[in-house]
Amino acid sequence: MKRLLLPLLALLMPSAYAVDYVQCEAIQKFIDRNSLEKQKIYKSSKALFEIKKLREKYPNFTNSDSFLLGIRSAGSTCLAMMSEQGYKDYKGMSEYKECETYEKNILSTFSKEYQDYLTSFPLLIENLKKDTKAKKDFKEKGCY
Predict the structure, then answer these.
(1) The pLDDT of residue 141
(2) How far is residue 91's CA from residue 129's CA, in Å, rounded to a whole number?
(3) Which range, 44-58, 63-77, 89-103, is most confident?
(4) CA 138/CA 134 separation, integer angstroms
(5) How do residues 26-62 score in pLDDT, each as one tens digit?
(6) Between the CA of residue 90 and those of 56, 78, 126, 144, what are the distances in Å?
(7) Mean pLDDT, residues 56-73 taken together
(8) Are 117 and 51 within 8 A, CB to CB?
(9) What is the model's pTM?
(10) What are phi and psi for residue 82, nearest 5 degrees?
(11) CA atoms within 13 A on the CB side of 94
């Protein structure tokens, strides 16, 4: 009778499994790196959206997006756009001030359009897919 009960009891007991902590650590590092990348993508997508809206309002400016992205980190996109037109006194010009005000309010004015823009941004979509898969793998592996 003992011979029959022991194997049955062994089957009912939960089996222990080993967690591969090296693999867990690698997945966690990937999630962390991906999170930093996502922040950069959000920042650049925000800037590109603002540049897009500025181009719609001021279509005669022809600076490249990459040039304007570089300028944004150092100062005003409007300043770079206006300087291309040959203006000499930027701060005193009503068009420049109007551009600056418009630039500051783009995200609040076009918040719904910005959200739609984000959901269709290819780099962000790819990043979110990687993030979802990595978090799923982390959980499935029993990592904590």
Answers:
(1) 85
(2) 45
(3) 44-58
(4) 6
(5) 889 999 999 999 998 888 888 889 888 988 887 766 6
(6) 21, 9, 40, 55
(7) 73
(8) no
(9) 0.67
(10) -70, -35
(11) 0
**3-state helix, strand and coil shares in percent for the chain, rounded to the nearest 5:** 75, 0, 25
Q: Which two tokens stand for residue 100?
A: 């600056």
Place of tokens 């984000």: 118
118: helix, strand or coil: helix
For 108, the token pair is 């609040």
DSSP letters for the chain: -HHHHHHHHHHHSPPP----HHHHHHHHHHHHHHHHHHHHHHHHHHHHHHHHHHHHHSTT----HHHHHHHHHHS-HHHHHHHHTT-S-STT-HHHHHHHHHHHTHHHHTHHHHHHHHHT-HHHHHHHHHHHHHHHHHHHTT--
